[in-house]
Every structure is written in C-alpha cells, then in structure tokens.
Design brief:
Helix content: 40-55%
Keywords: Hydrolase
CATH class: Alpha Beta
CATH topology: Rossmann fold
EC number: 3.1.1.24
Bound molecules: the ligand O=C(O)CCC(=O)CC(=O)O
Number of helices: 11
InterPro entries: AB_hydrolase_1, AB_hydrolase_fold, AB_hydrolase_sf, PcaD/CatD
CATH architecture: 3-Layer(aba) Sandwich
GO molecular function, one term: 3-oxoadipate enol-lactonase activity
Organism: Sulfitobacter noctilucicola
Strand content: 15-25%
Length: about 260
Amino acid sequence: MKMLDTGDVRLHYRVDGPDDGPPVVFSNSLGTDLRLWDPILPMLPKGLRLIRYDKRGHGLSSCPPAPYSMGALITDAERLMDHLGVRDCVFVGLSIGGMTAQGLAAKRLDLIRAMVLSNTAAKIGTPAMWNVRIAAVQEGGIEKLADAVMERWFSAGFRATPELELWRNMLVRGEDAGYAGCSAAISGTDLMAPTSGLRLPVLGIAGAEDGSTPPDMVRETVDLIPGSKFHLIRKAGHLPCVEQPEEYARVLTEFLKGVGHV
Ligand SMILES: O=C(O)CCC(=O)CC(=O)O
C-alpha cells in the first residue's frame, strides 16, 4: 500500500510496472476508485509504468470535508506526479479524471506528453443539476442516487449481468462527503478556454450509451484541441474500460504507440 501525505490530503496510489518504464497516469471518475482500471491494465503492453490513485474523498484516500475545487484535484495529481518524479507521461482521465487531465495540462505541460480524454468534457452538466445531486447525497447518502447512476454508467446489457453488483457496491460504499465534494468541483468547472489553448496529442474516447457525457459532448471538447483523435465504443456507457476492456485497451495501446510511448 502506498500513500502520499500532501499536507491537506492523504492520497492512496498504486504503481505497477518498472520504475524506468514510460509513465501512464490514470485518473478515475466520480464514485469510483483506482480499481476502475483493473479490467484493462493486464491488456496493456509490458514495460509501462502504470500509476493510478484514489482522488480525495474516494477509495482509500482521506476524505477532507466537502466541497472541493477542481484546482485542489489538479494540485493533488500534480503533487503525486512530482513525488514520483513523473515527467512526460500519458495521462488517461475518465470523466472528472479527464477534467483533471485538462486542467493539469494547462497548468503543467511539462508533466504531460499526451492525454486520453475518456467520457469527459470541458464542462459537465450545470450548477443547478449538481446542486440537486449534492442535496440528494446530503439527505439520503449515495445509495439514494445509485440506481440512476448505474443507468448512466452502464448499457442495458451490462446492467443485466451479475457484475453490476460489484460496481454498484464500489459506488455506494464510498464516502458521501467525497462524492458531494467532487460533485461541487465539477459543478464549478468550465475548462473551455484553457482546453482550447492546449497543443498536445489527444485521444477522445466515448461510450455510445453514456448517459453522463454522451459522445457529442466528448467530441465537442476533444475538437477544441487541433489534431485530436476520437474513438466511439459501442455497447458501452460512461465506463467503457469496464464494459469493453479489450477495445479500450486496444485503442489506448494504439495511441501509446502513436505518441512513442511503446
Ligand atoms: O463520472 C464523473 O466523474 C462525473 C459524471 C457523472 O456524474 C457520472 C454519473 O452520472 O454518475
């Protein structure tokens, strides 16, 4: 078990692969922990340094009182990468993790060679929508939202499988304050201007049945960055790395090859 104490949060992280391998950093979505990437990591080429972490209020990381800002989430990722001596990584961010990627690239381009913006956007939802969600969590806990979240996370086909229970458990066993805190961070974030100024290789990934960040929303954001690639995964919702891990790992591997990381 590895932990970084930044002073205002303790971040749980995990590194797989050789210390001198090309680094790939993974940042996961709202209500998930670093196990989100378990389905795809064994399918990636050997020799990469695979770094993942639980953002504040999630997984085994500490849970400071809500609300959080996007700036704090970006600084957490920055501190972890500085702590691990990571430069020139490929940063793979899913949803709120993809917002962190965009903000970090705008702040510290020395850390990021290329990024994957998976099921994310420069702006997700509206403050009014997030306020309703935050109020629901404060009143009834994450459980109150869980069935609706499953409909956005997964396609109907996947929701009919027994594996659904595992991911639902991950969501509802999370900290209410962590969920509400990160929801507030998303609510206050509009990265359209900084993301438009980014110049680096980008791969956008969307799920055809994503009820949170539909394909058009992902595409609109990746199109802000000239030369970006885009890949649509069919039969997948908001978490295609879970539903279609082979395809996800294949397009990620092709992208890693394209930017000279493999
Ligand atoms: O997944 C995220 O990080 C934010 C988008 C979202 O709210 C997903 C969901 O619908 O639960």
